[in-house]
Amino acid sequence: MEFCTKLRATDRRLIQRLASGTTPGAHRLLSAVEECAEGTKLWCGVSVVMALAGGRRGRRAAASALAALTVAQTVSNGLCKHLVRRPRPPKDWVPHDEVEDRPDSPSFPSGHTAAAAAFTAAVLPVWPLAGVLCAIPAALVAVERVQSGAHYPSDVAAGAVIGLGSAWIVRHGPEMAKARRVHLPATLNV
């Protein structure tokens, strides 16, 4: 119980610090990045550019990233939000009107952050330069989710963990499944 109390206090401090300490220019940039990332538009667009401009490596990076994004979205939005059902941060924690323009869905975890982290982490081992470039908007998305009052910092951290785990599963899952494949006899006597 003490952990939950400390986590809530830390979440509140971080939300208030980011929400009140962001300059108008940074606020506009964060809002623009979030708008692009809404509905995974940003990541789908980046995938198209990588596939068209990056040759075989670009197509591999795009396919891996979209697969990881899909896993992350399924886990975060399709599973975790329905299990945890955490409400959004209180509106009085956020001293600007952007808090009025947030979803009504549960807060935990941040699906935007899960998608951004999954996409970036899946691109990085296939095409390191593209992965580093993807990390910039991914970090901005994570910051924006807290700054706007849409998520607690702990929601964003959980989304990042889900995203990283999703990228790991997409990268290593097939080889692990292949190594553990159980070979059944051609005929089973049932």
TrEMBL record:
<dbReference type="GO" id="GO:0016787">
    <property type="term" value="F:hydrolase activity"/>
</dbReference>
<feature type="domain" description="Phosphatidic acid phosphatase type 2/haloperoxidase">
    <location>
        <begin position="62"/>
        <end position="171"/>
    </location>
</feature>
<dbReference type="Pfam" id="PF01569">
    <property type="entry name" value="PAP2"/>
</dbReference>
<dbReference type="InterPro" id="IPR036938">
    <property type="entry name" value="PAP2/HPO_sf"/>
</dbReference>
<feature type="region of interest" description="Disordered">
    <location>
        <begin position="90"/>
        <end position="111"/>
    </location>
</feature>
<feature type="compositionally biased region" description="Basic and acidic residues">
    <location>
        <begin position="90"/>
        <end position="104"/>
    </location>
</feature>
<dbReference type="InterPro" id="IPR000326">
    <property type="entry name" value="PAP2/HPO"/>
</dbReference>
<dbReference type="GO" id="GO:0005886">
    <property type="term" value="C:plasma membrane"/>
</dbReference>
<keyword id="KW-0812">Transmembrane</keyword>
<keyword id="KW-0378">Hydrolase</keyword>
<keyword id="KW-1133">Transmembrane helix</keyword>
<keyword id="KW-1003">Cell membrane</keyword>
<keyword id="KW-0472">Membrane</keyword>
<protein>
    <recommendedName>
        <fullName>Phosphatidic acid phosphatase type 2/haloperoxidase domain-containing protein</fullName>
    </recommendedName>
</protein>
